[in-house]
């Protein structure tokens, strides 16, 4: 009996410890950033750990160029290949190496690895290492990477007297690095781990604008210069060639740099394909030609450089169509589909990958495919530059389409074909304000030039026009709260209290996917002087879309 108080106190102490540990883990999860937007690094990594063991035979690793440039679901749809992309934003090669080892623990029968080499000789910032490592479980692979990175960072700090090096403990306990994020927390920080974390895109991110400017100009430098500058070097060498390469370049490596290899991981287990996406105004300080001659070629590795004219011709690549306007070093959806189609054929012809369509291995892929195809459809909407085609593509049951006219200096006197496209959506025939303006004139007819409308699921829950300013709120199909305004100075559309339109002169349109709760596209359209396609040299007024 005399031991009971001791057991009771021990039990209370243990309970307190467990509760404290759970709270600590919860707080750490909340404070760790959720990189789930533009390049979705956290979604990619958490989604990978939801895969069934031994369920993929192709792994893709690399930076944001591979996130936007290679689609595993396109590989499945076209060639039946089961693949996953473990790309993260500006992925350091150390992280590529670690992610490959991680993948091999649960996917031991990989047939091929595609390594995208953008960051091969680049110096990455601390945030890039965090995005590549924070969402990995704490195991031997991660611990090895932490030690290597911290040692490199400490040496770099001594050499450059720069930013303080991170500690290993800050990677083991991320709350140390992120404790001051309390004033940056958002709803997603609290809900992220309660949601389904599978990734139906399998690491791919659909990017949708186009019209890249500039030209591709590869730098002319030799491998010696690149190696001398590199903080981390990964050697894609077969075991037989690795030692020879190290001896040949022993004096060229940067002092204190990390040098590692891929094929030495669990032996030379899979064919490694080194690749590079097309780059415009490339920011990488190395010549891809030197990657091929200094690493890939010497070690008998296939190097698919999509910067080469012959490969670009083979895939029908056009940088003004296939690269992003806002970030021309990245492919958009159109470019990704072209590159992926080529890679899929290459894998099928050279890497003995299986076509899993119609097999049990395809069950998860078949469940994910409709979600992916809807995403592609959303992405293709963004690529449409013609108003009539755009409106035709908006006729989907999952879309809520919001319209508002901003008639300040605007002109919505659209040609009949475009007015027909609007009425074809179910809007009132011959919408008054669409013929209320003359080019460059802001005078309204008696029926007024202000207009707001909402279309969803084949219905029109809201449609108003008139000379006075208009403002109306309503609840959309998924319960989201929307507000629309139209006047001589604004045409605004907001969802959930956040303005989501361009609010430019003309007709503003927002397409909202009420299944995903995301804005698919936001455009403004008015009449501008353009060269007519059917009459070269002649100009006329045409509807122009602006995003």
Describe the structure.
It is globular, with a radius of gyration of 27 Å. The chain has helices at residues 4-31, 41-48, 64-69, 72-79, 93-106, 126-133, 140-160, 168-172, 175-178, 187-191, 223-229, 239-248, 288-296, 309-315, 319-322, 333-350, 363-382, 387-393, 416-424; strands spanning 58-62, 83-87, 112-116, 232-235, 258-261, 272-276, 303-305, 399-406, 450-456, 459-466, 470-475, 481-486, 491-495, 498-499, 506-513, 518-531, 539-546. Helix content is 36%, strand content 19%. It is α/β, with parallel strands linked by helices. The model is unreliable at 215-221, 236-240, 261-272, 279-287 and 435-447 (pLDDT under 50). The chain has 19 helices and 17 strands. The protein has 2 domains: 39-147 and 200-378, Rossmann fold (3-Layer(aba) Sandwich); 387-546, no CATH class.
Taking all residues together, what is the mean pLDDT?
A: 75
Whole-number count of domains: 2
Describe the strand arrangement of the main beta sheet, using strand numbers: 10-9-8-15-16-17
Cα distance spanning the termini: 77 Å
**Main beta-sheet strand count, sense and barrel state:** 6 strands, antiparallel
The rounded Rg comes to 27 Å
Strand content: 15-25%
CATH architecture term of the largest domain: 3-Layer(aba) Sandwich
Low-pLDDT regions: 215-221, 236-240, 261-272, 279-287, 435-447
- What oligomeric state do the depicted chains represent? single chain
CATH superfamily caption of the largest domain = SGNH hydrolase
Shape: globular
- Would you state the CATH class of the largest domain? Alpha Beta
């Amino acid at each position: 009996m005399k031991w009971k108080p001791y057991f009771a106190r021990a039990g209370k102490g243990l309970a307190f410890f467990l509760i404290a540990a759970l709270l600590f883990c919860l707080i750490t999860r909340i404070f760790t950033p959720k990189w789930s937007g533009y390049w979705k690094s956290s979604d990619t990594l958490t989604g990978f750990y939801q895969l069934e063991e031994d369920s993929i035979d192709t792994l893709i690793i690399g930076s944001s160029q591979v996130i936007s440039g290679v689609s595993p679901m396109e590989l499945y749809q076209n060639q039946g290949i089961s693949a996953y992309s473990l790309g993260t934003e500006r992925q350091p090669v150390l992280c590529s190496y670690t992610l490959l080892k991680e993948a091999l623990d649960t996917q031991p029968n990989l047939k091929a690895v595609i390594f995208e080499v953008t960051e091969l000789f680049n110096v990455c910032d601390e945030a890039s290492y965090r995005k590549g490592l924070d969402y990995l479980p704490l195991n031997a692979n991660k611990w090895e990477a932490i030690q290597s990175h911290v040692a490199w960072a400490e040496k770099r700090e001594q050499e450059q007297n720069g930013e303080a090096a991170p500690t290993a403990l800050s990677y083991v306990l991320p709350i140390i690095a992120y404790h001051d994020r309390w004033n940056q927390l958002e709803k997603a920080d609290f809900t992220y781990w309660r949601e389904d974390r599978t990734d139906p895109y399998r690491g791919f991110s659909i990017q949708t604008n186009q019209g890249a400017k500039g030209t591709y100009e590869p730098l002319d430098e030799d491998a010696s210069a690149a190696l001398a500058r590199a903080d981390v070097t990964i050697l894609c060498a077969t075991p037989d060639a690795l030692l020879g390469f190290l001896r040949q370049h022993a004096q060229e490596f940067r002092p204190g740099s990390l040098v590692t290899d891929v094929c030495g991981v669990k032996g030379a287990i899979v064919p490694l394909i080194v690749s590079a996406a097309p780059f415009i105004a490339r920011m990488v300080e190395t010549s891809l030609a030197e990657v091929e001659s200094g690493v890939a070629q010497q070690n008998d590795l296939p190097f698919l450089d999509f910067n080469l004219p012959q490969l670009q011709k083979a895939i029908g690549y056009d940088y003004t169509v296939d690269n992003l306007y806002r970030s021309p070093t990245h492919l958009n959806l159109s470019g990704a589909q072209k590159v992926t189609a080529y890679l899929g054929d290459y894998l099928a012809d050279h890497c003995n990958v299986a076509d899993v369509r119609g097999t049990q291995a395809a069950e998860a892929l078949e469940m994910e495919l409709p979600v992916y195809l809807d995403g592609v459809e959303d992405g293709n909407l963004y690529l449409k530059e013609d108003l009539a085609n755009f409106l035709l593509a908006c006729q989907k049951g999952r879309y809520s389409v919001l319209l508002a006219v901003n008639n300040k200096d605007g002109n919505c006197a659209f040609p009949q074909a475009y007015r027909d496209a609007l009425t074809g959506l179910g809007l009132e025939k011959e919408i008054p304000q669409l013929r209320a303006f003359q080019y460059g004139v802001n005078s309204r007819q008696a029926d007024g030039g202000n207009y707001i409308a909402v279309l969803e699921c084949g219905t029109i829950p809201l449609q108003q026009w008139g000379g006075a300013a208009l403002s109306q709120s309503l609840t959309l199909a998924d319960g989201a709260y929307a507000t629309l305004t139209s006047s001589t100075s604004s045409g605004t559309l907001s969802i959930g209290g956040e303005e989501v339109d361009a609010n430019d002169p003309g007709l503003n349109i927002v397409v909202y996917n009420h299944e995903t709760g995301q804005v698919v596209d936001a455009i403004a359209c008015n009449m501008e002087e353009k060269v007519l396609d059917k009459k070269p040299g002649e100009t006329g007024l045409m509807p122009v879309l602006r995003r």
